[in-house]
Amino acid sequence: MSKEALFGKTLAQLTTIISEYGLPKYAAGQIAGWLYRKNATSFAEMSNLSKKTRELLDASFSIGLTDPVKVQESSDGTKKYLYPAAGNRFIEAAYIPEEKRNTLCISTQVGCKMACLFCMTGKQGFQANLSAGEIINQIQSLPERDKLSNIVYMGMGEPLDNPEAVFDSLEILTAEWGFGMSPKRITLSTIGLIPAMTTFIEQGKCHLAISLHTPFDAERSKLMPIEQVYPIKEIIKLLKSYDFGRQRRVSFEYIMFAGLNDSRRHVNELVRTLHGLKCRINLIRFHPIPDTLLTGSDDKTIKEFQDALNAKGITTTIRASRGE
Predict the structure, then answer these.
(1) Is residue 98 scored above 80 in pLDDT?
(2) What radius of gyration do the chain's Cα atoms show?
């Protein structure tokens, strides 16, 4: 049987493990420092632990880091890394270099249950949840790790359908004993699973992005079956009940589909629905996937849509297409 990995454990979880082995509690902080701040790849490197402790850990546990097995690079410099995870399965992480920032989009599941009409991952169906270690391994084992400025939970899977591992990974990324990243550098993207999203809002400080795509219930139900469980109106009502402050951003992702959600009627309904909520909208070009009749709006329509929303007071940007 494979050894249990320590990478991906929170400080509290490491403390529990250390206590079970009769080791002093302060050793948990030392181990966390080696895992998340000093980038240790073996227990032998953990020089402030006794030799006996290092041997005990090596006999019972693994570090748990896994290198990517494949990379594809686009002409614009975007790289898609393939990582082994959850047994004999694989996940992807997309590294997007830009002039002022370098972003990594990370996965939280193998496949996805949500079956959104426009999503290739959803066509795979759900296969497995990732552990917290497998989630942050995409960051730690990235060749460009030292160049990263931003992390987005927007890869394979729905993050809030795997809340325990996702919340542990966020704790590790932002805690002083962990990576020590600013929450302002991290965004979680979700279709809006209200119970877990409520926990994320109340307990976290990272930015939140909601997959919207249309303000009309019937249209959203066709695109995203989850609308029938957690309607977008209820999601927005929940968001309006919180004060996110000046340091935390709420945004909506809006893929532009030709003839489906790109009309002036949609602009007006977006303005009405989002009234009173401090937020922004990111318009996204749609790149066709197999077995769907959806097509993307043309650039002229997208620009006119952006201008109309901005004129109504909703900050709206067009996300640059990367990695085609």
Answers:
(1) yes
(2) 21
